[in-house]
UniProtKB/TrEMBL annotation:
<dbReference type="InterPro" id="IPR043129">
    <property type="entry name" value="ATPase_NBD"/>
</dbReference>
<dbReference type="InterPro" id="IPR049874">
    <property type="entry name" value="ROK_cs"/>
</dbReference>
<protein>
    <submittedName>
        <fullName>ROK family protein</fullName>
    </submittedName>
</protein>
<dbReference type="Pfam" id="PF00480">
    <property type="entry name" value="ROK"/>
</dbReference>
<comment type="similarity">
    <text>Belongs to the ROK (NagC/XylR) family.</text>
</comment>
<dbReference type="InterPro" id="IPR000600">
    <property type="entry name" value="ROK"/>
</dbReference>
């Protein structure tokens, strides 16, 4: 028997991906375009149109009942607009209206990319089976999303759980968001690398100054590289513990490029949690690496759309 499908878009500064997703989270059709991030807004929108046109050209398109969008942010789901930091041509861009016009007025659900990743991890990944979870992307930036009471909690604008801009150092460095000492300003990949370079770490002959290169140096025992990851882990632990104290999450799932450092990040993070998650009701908090990989944005966008109240039928089961 044929079942309904959900279309999904995953929009970031590097790529615009699209897929048709079935009730088991399988991507039956997928396509992708490079994001013309430095072009004007209409040029970026045309790339979205091309992805949608390719999906709509599939023989499976007639089974699509809703469309989910996970976008780099900030997003404003209440108004259907996006203003991604890494796509300067889109400021208050009416993405939902554009997508609806291109797809015959399908129900459309817009969430931030961190929320989309959370939906995917809760449905099929490391947060599966947990009713209360924080899922995070630690990469160029730090984003996240929440599951509360067994359901995705995107918030009114689709940004709830954006842990990267919790301040964990009141007198810390200014953050591009306008605050000081944000988790992102300390824990993101570029800031891990910046701190290591400022502390005297030097890259190898290839000149690689990425967080991955710092992680490799940390594995080799370089004290400055280790210290930079320790500081990142401390910031993450403080933000996670604060979130757990407010929401009683049971698990924090961490994905993104920085999570690829493995125990170089997770070992000091788990140690630091003992210093911050001290109250009895958060002491059992678990930390785990994400499982969904590069498909998380598409799977999660589909899950968010399927669980939205505007979706006529549940093509995808978001959560348990």
């Amino acid at each position: 028997m044929q079942t309904d499908l959900v279309a999904a878009l995953d929009i970031g500064g590097t790529k615009i991906a699209g897929a048709l997703v079935d009730a088991d989270g399988r991507l039956l059709v997928r396509t992708q375009r490079a994001t013309p991030a430095q072009e004007d807004g209409e040029t970026v929108a045309r790339a979205v149109d091309e992805v949608l046109a390719e999906l709509a050209g599939s023989a499976l398109w007639g089974r699509v009942t809703a469309l989910g969008i996970g976008s780099a942010g900030p997003v404003d789901a209440s108004n259907g607009t996006v203003s991604p930091v890494n796509i300067p041509g889109w400021r208050g861009f009416p993405l939902v209206a554009r997508v609806r016009a291109a797809t015959g007025a399908l129900p459309v659900e817009l969430v931030g990319d961190g929320v989309a990743m959370t939906a995917a991890e809760h449905w099929l990944g490391a947060a599966r089976g947990y009713d209360n979870a924080l899922c995070m992307v630690v990469s160029t930036g730090v984003g996240g999303g929440l599951v509360l009471g067994g359901r995705l909690h995107p918030g009114p604008t689709g940004n709830a759980g954006h842990i990267g801009h919790i301040s964990v150092d009141l007198d810390g460095d200014p953050c591009p968001c306008g605050a000081r000492g944000c988790v992102e300003r300390i824990a993101s990949g570029p800031n891990i690398a910046r701190r290591a370079l400022e502390g005297g770490w030097t890259p190898g002959p290839d000149g690689d100054t990425s967080a991955a290169a710092v992680a490799a140096a940390a594995r080799a025992g370089h004290p400055v590289a280790l210290a930079s990851f320790e500081r990142s882990a401390q910031a993450l632990a403080a933000g996670i513990a604060a979130t757990a104290t407010l929401t009683e999450i049971e698990i924090a799932v961490i994905g993104g490029g920085v999570a690829g450092a493995g125990d170089i990040l997770f070992a000091p993070l788990r140690r630091a949690l003992h210093d911050y998650a001290t109250l009895s009701f958060v002491q059992g908090l678990k930390v785990a690496p994400a499982l969904m990989g590069t498909d998380a944005g598409l799977v999660g966008a589909a899950a968010a759309a399927a669980s939205a109240p505007t979706t006529p039928r549940r093509a995808v089961r978001a959560g348990r």
